[in-house]
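The passage that follows is intended for readers who have already worked through the single-chain material. We present the inputs for a multi-component assembly, then the predicted structure in tokenized form, and finally a short commentary. You are encouraged to pause after the input and sketch how you expect the pieces to fit together before reading on.
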Amino acid sequence: MPPGQREMPDEPPPFLGTWPRVYTAVVVYLAFLIALCYVFTRAFS
Amino acid sequence: MRPLDWVVLVGSLASIIAYGLYRGRGSNTVDRYLLAGRSMPWYAMALSIMATQASAITFISTTGQSYVDGMRFVQFYFGMPLAMVALSATVVPIFHRAKVYTAYEYLENRFDAKTRALASVIFLMQRGLSVGLTFYAPAIVLSIIFGWPDRLTTAIIGVTVVLYTVTGGIRTVTWTDVQQMVIILFGLVVALVMIFVLLPRQVSFLDALHLAGSAGKLNAVTFHFDWNDRYNLWSGLIGGMFLALSYFGCDQSQVQRYLTGKSITQSKLSLLFTAMAKIPMQFFILFIGAMVFVFYIFEPPPLVFQRVEYNRIRQPELRARYDPIAARYQEAFARRKAQALAMVEARHTADTRAEREAIENYRRAQQDVDSARRQGASLVEATGGEKGFRDTNYIFLSFVTRYLPTGIVGLLIAVILAATMSSSSGEINSLATVSVVDIYRRHFRKDATDRHYLNASRVATAFWGAYAVAFAGLGKHLGSLIEAVNIVGSLFYGSLLGVFVLAFFFKRVSGTGAFVGMLAGEAAIFAAFLFTGISFLWYNVIGCLVVISTGMAVSYVAPAASATPDITR
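Having made your guess, compare it with the prediction:
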């Protein structure tokens, strides 16, 4: 690895502690939105 | 447009341009002009990314798409959060650490110059066509309002945008986008509120939802799998994810936004915020289209929303063909309205049997309305109109100009025009960046001064503006603009995604393997486009897989002479 690449460390996110937790939260949020859309579709069809 | 509309329109545009130029002060070096000195905060990048997508096309075409086809287009965005997570975990740190101006610059570090050049050319072709469509959308606005020819208005807007973009740079583009996003959201809320204000008194919010849903307009999720069906859960999750991976990972117009970030964390947050906000926003815009549909249950819509064609088919020489269709349309409209009111009344009195009967009759009347509209479109086509004529892009604006009060019309037109300026300026900026950094500086003039490259960037900006205007006329041949933009992108994105996947995850693949793989990927995509009925969302998957498999096969048969440098970790 060239030295320049080490100048930008991957900092922790400002919330939830680690990036994997943030990514998991985004995926759970997506599942929630799809479920909401499904309920919406069923309720008014 | 009345005087107050003109005051709101001109005032809004002037304030946006002035704010953008104010924010863009000091863009006097290549680094500041193209990457804002890598100083942008996450919220500005996120709103800028969203504003670029929420262009005039979003307002004009997505609402019309929902009016005609329902809300299932929202599924197209389901893959985006998955893509954003993948990109944040992999691509963003790699690009930041490589300290590149463009995504394609990285390909030379990993492979060779020819692979970088091919990827750059593919991007320039694709984005150059797309920016033309971005220009075309507001031309529709002006053609409806003033009756101006599309080409003239496209040229006028194009020249304005080029002048504005040349002076500012990416910092201007980004901060203007932020301001745009606020105005767009405000405009959306105002439009929806106005629709509900204009509905008949006896029709409640829930009634409106049931009327739209019973006509199949609230179909936000469909599970049925079909390769040829453009929008279902599966094509959205898988195809949409690949398209978003390509768009946000390989398209310089987006990559350049998060390369302006202060840090890796700021860039990651901008992408993840976009992922979380995009689906609700798109849902909201589609919902507005569905509510415009409900509005037109009670107010007679024109047989054809494109005013010029509508006036043409009502000329005396065509009346013999127009009148029977119009009579059928009016009869079906009256029947649909009566059944809708019966349905609302049955709901209010909790008469389930009467409601069920009214719904059946309402759906039958809706089918007749649709059928008459199709006949109207066929009449346009058969009497010298555009082949494959569709009026999807004219529906929302027809509603705005006919029914919204003075002042609000001006505001919404200002939003549409300004969003176009902002979106296209970002696209042109990225086209200029790739032209100068990946082509001109790499192959023609390697050791010039910073001032020279800054001026070259401005010249390239003007060139791409002219190119976009020249191709804008294609918009009218491509049906719904929002689909057209994504179809054009899908013809090229799969190959770009494939070569970046090779670069990041397949260490043994050579430059020649990647180069041949990209050519094979493009060939496969165009074969799918020209000779099959496969939905465009799958082109990205096909292209990506063909690039990867071909790249690996070629590298196995003819391995690279020396190991490629590892700069991906």
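Commentary: Residues 125 and 492 of chain B are 9 Å apart (CA to CA). The domain at 3-296+401-557 of chain B is CATH 1.20.1730.10 (Sodium/glucose cotransporter). How closely did your sketch match?
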